[in-house]
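## tool: complex_structure
## caller: assistant
## args:
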Amino acid sequence: MRIEISHKFIVGFIVVVGSIVLLNGLVPRLGIPEHLQQLVATLGALLVGLVFGWLFSKAFTSNIGVLTTGAERLSTGDLSRKIRLRKGIASDETEDLANSLNLVVDSLRNLVGQIRTSSLRVNESSLGLSATAEEMTTSSHQVAGTIEQISKGAESQASMVETVLRVVKDMAMSIELVAASAKTLTASAAETTDTARQGEQMASTAVENMKQVLAQVDENGTQIVAFSEHVQQIGTIVDVITHIAQKTNLLALNATIEAARAGEYGHGFAIVADEISKLAESAGESASEITRLIETTKQESIQVQESMSRSRTVIDAGRESINTVSDAFHAITDRAENSQTKAISINELAESQIGSAQDIVEAIEEISRVAEENAVSTEEVAAATEEQSMSMERMSASSLKLAQLADELLVSVSRFQLGAEGATEPS
Amino acid sequence: MIQVLPFVLGGGLYGLELTQIQEVVDAAPVYYLPGAPEGIMGALNFHGRILPVLDLPLQFGFAKGPRSARMIVPTDRNCPLVLAVDSVRSVLSADAQQIKPCLNVAAEETVQQVLDLDGQRIRLVDLTLLRKRVGRLCELSGG
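## result:
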C-alpha cells in the first residue's frame, strides 16, 4: 500500500488529535480524581504524540539514511550493490528515489562495464595492431633490404650489360676487321690463282719447248748415228785400202829382194819396185791418216752422242722438273681457288655476323635501358617501402598511444566497482 | 853398194842383206808343232814347202811375246827357216865401207858385222852362224 509522506503526516496528525479526543472521553470513566483527569489526558496525548513522532521519524530517517548511504556509495563509484530500503507498511517517495537511484546505478553499471570491455578490447586490438604494424615494419624492412639487393643487382646488371655492350661492340669491330681481312685474302687468293695459272701456262709452254728441243736432239742423234755408220763404212773401205797398201808394200819389198838377187839386171826393176813401195807407203800413210781421222771423228761422235745423251737426261730431268713445277702451280691454283672460296664464305659469314652483332648491340642497349629503368623503379620502390615503413612505425606508435589511452580509460573506469556480477555481465 | 832389210828384235835394230833373203811373207798361218824345241814357234806353208818358224827375238835373248805378221824367209842354201821378228822396216841402201866388224858378245854370237848409217847401227845377222846355232838347238832338243 502506497501512502505519500504528506499523507502520512496528515494521518499521524489525525491519529494524535483523535487520541487526545479519545483520552478526554476515556479518563473520567476510569475513576481518576477530577483534578487529575486533565493532567492524565494531557500526559496521555503527549505520550501518544511522542510515540507516533518517534516511530514516524525513525522510519523516515532510516530510509533517508539508506538513500544517503547509497548516494555516497554511488559517488565513490561503488556500483556493486543496489539500494534496498527496509520494507515498511507503506511505501513512499523514498522508495521512488531509491528506485530511481537503482536505475542510475544499473545504467552506470552497464555503461562502465561496456566501457571497460570496450577499452580492454581496444587495448587488445591496438596491441595486436601494434604487433601487426611492427611485423609489417619488419616485413617492409626486409622488403627494403631485398629491394636494395635488387637495386644493387640491377646496378651490377647495368654495369655488366655495359661491359657486355662494350665487348660486343669490340667484337663487332673485330668482325669488321675479319671481313676486311677476308676481302684482302680473297683478292690475294685471286691474284695467286691468276699468277699460278700464268705460271702453269708458262710451265706447259716450257714443256712444249723442251719437247721440241728433245725432238731436235733425237733427230740430231739419229743423224749422228747415220753419220757414224757412214764413217764406219769409210773405215771399212780405208781398211781395205790399208790392206791393199800393205800388200803392195810387201809386193814391192819382195820385188826389191828379187831385183837385188838379180844383180845388175834387176837394177831397173829395183827402181820401179822402190817407186811402187813409196806409192804403197804413201797410200798406207794416207789410209792411216784417214783411219786416224775416222778414229777422231768416232771419238768425237761418241762424245757428241754422250753429250746428247746427257743433254737428253738433263732435258728429261728439266721436263720432269717443269712437270713438277706445273703440278705445283696446278696445286697452287687449286689451293688458291679453295682459299678464295673459303675467304669469300668467311667474308659472307663476317658480313652476316656484322648484322647479327648490330642486332645484338641493339638488343643489349635495350637490355641496358630496361636495366636502368629497373634500377630507377627499384629505387622508387625502395623509397615507397621506406615511406611505408615509416608509416607503419607511425601507425605502431599511434596504436601504442591508443593502447595507452585505453589503459588510461580503464584506469579511469576502474574506480567504479561493479562486483562480480557487473564484471562478467557484458559480453 | 849393198841393200839391207832392217828389222827390230826386242829393243835392237838388226838387218839382213837382200841377197840373203828369198821373200818376205805376210800373215801366213803358223801351225803349232808338238814336241818342237823352245824357240821354234811352229811351221808354215811356204809355196808348198813346210818350213819351221824360228822365234828370232828369243834367240837373241829378248822376252817372249807376239811377233810381227811379216816374216822373213832366207835363201835356201843359207838357212831352211822362216824368221819371226818384231817388225820389218823399209829397205836401206849403203856402201860396203859402212860395214864394220862387231865386238862379239855371248848372246849375239851370230852377229859379226855392223852397218853404221850416220849413228844408226844395224847389226847384220850371220845366217851361217845362226844355222849352226839352230842346229845345235835342234840337236839338243832332239837328244
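## assistant note: Confidence is low (pLDDT under 50) at residues 422-427 of chain A. The interface with chain B takes residues 246-247, 250, 253-254, 256-257, 260-261, 270, 274, 277, 281 of chain A (CB under 8 Å). Handing back to user.
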